[in-house]
Design a protein that fits this description.
Shape: globular
Helix content: 40-55%
């Protein structure tokens, strides 16, 4: 893959704006908490190597959020039904969490707009059953989630 110079701060601003708007939240803090919860719930289902492979295709700041505080010695959990995963997301920083029910879908929608589709698909295909479904996004128009580069 040819490397493209990217502006991490501009890209992060756009990701936060997408997240906040998609989840109908009012602040960057609540959008960040929701995304952090989604990423934590996902990484709990991966080995350290699988997680690093996944992180390698994320934009810079979501990549840092994904690996921050990870306890890699814990064994991976199996993927569960979407409703159970959403409840798990809502338990991250529970006293400061206003995460809506669409947090996983909104995070997937937003992050797909800032990742290389082929790289993401390649990595997801190597992860445990449930990973592809976790990041699946239904859109009427695929241009909605075309990669944005800053």
């Amino acid at each position: 893959m040819p490397w493209t110079y990217r502006h991490a701060s501009k890209e992060w601003r756009a990701i936060l704006d997408d997240l906040r708007d998609r989840m109908d939240l009012t602040s960057d803090n609540t959008a960040y908490t929701a995304m952090d919860g989604v990423l934590q719930v996902f990484r709990r289902r991966l080995t350290a190597q699988q997680g690093l492979n996944f992180a390698s295709v994320l934009p810079a700041i979501p990549r840092a959020v994904f690996v921050a505080g990870w306890q890699v010695h814990l064994p991976p959990l199996p993927f569960a039904e979407r409703a159970a995963l959403v409840q798990e997301v809502k338990k991250v920083r529970q006293n400061h969490n206003l995460t809506p029910d669409n947090a996983i879908e909104a995070t997937a929608w937003s992050l797909r707009r800032y990742t290389n589709k082929a790289d993401l698909a390649r990595v997801l295909a190597t992860l445990p059953e449930g990973a592809v479904e976790f990041w699946h996004v239904d859109v009427a128009d695929p241009r909605e989630i075309e990669q944005r580069i800053f």
